[in-house]
Amino acid sequence: MWPLLVRNLIATWVICGFWDWFLYLSPMKEVLRPFKMNPKYPPLRQLQHDALHTTLATLCGSGVEILLCRLWATGMLPMQETLAEAPLWTLLWAATIVHWRIPHFYLMHRGMHPWRTTRVPDFGKFLYRHVHAQHHKSYLPTAFSGTNMHPVEATLYYLMPSLFMAYLCRLHPAVALGCIFDCAVGAWLGHDGFRWPGAGDFFHQLHHEHFDCNYGAQHIPIDKWLGTYCGSKADLKKVWGTSSSVGREGNMECTQVWDCK
């Protein structure tokens, strides 16, 4: 247990810590400034806040990993015991991790934003206020912002795709644990805020700027299919009409963001 926790914490700080230092604090900062998607820079307070909460999220992800290992070890969760047992099956699911985990992410993420319906109680508004709003404090996201999540959200983020697919497809443990790794690194690099040498995820950058759009990822165009895709702030009107409760302004009541420069 302890070696696993130490491994994950070291990986978090090496990957996020180095990348945020390189992009935002190192002597290369001014050289890279033209490549920043939003020209504003987050204050040091946000970097410190996000580093703390991403560390806590890593503890949640480690808890999910420990749980899965326990379930496999006790036989409560079926698994493919060796890679040689079904090599092509394993290769298929390993090669498509980033694609099959995105629908899980969209479902969870969309559910934690206001549903904007009167047909059923708007539990999304409750979940946004009390859970997901923490992530949106990172209005100008960096690598450490990727898993700046409430413990409830962090646990679900790591648990949903890994446990569901491990059970449904009887995956080799390496694939399910690879999913946890991909969830972490994908979120960290996808929030770095730079076109180059960063990940350049302008799609998700727009979500952080305008809130009520782009809940998934570009790999699987679920937002396009379900009508929640926006390529600019003006597209919010196409999705939600003229409602004044959408976008950054409509969510400020529940979200405190850091001052920026």
TrEMBL record:
InterPro entries documented for this protein: Fatty_acid_hydroxylase (IPR006694), Sterol_Desaturase_Related (IPR050307)
Alphabetically ordered keywords of this record: Membrane, Transmembrane, Transmembrane helix
Subcellular localization, as worded in the UniProt entry: Membrane
Domain spans labelled Fatty acid hydroxylase: 104-228
One Pfam family recorded for the sequence: FA_hydroxylase
PANTHER family to which the protein is assigned, alphabetical: STEROL DESATURASE
Protein name, per record: Fatty acid hydroxylase domain-containing protein
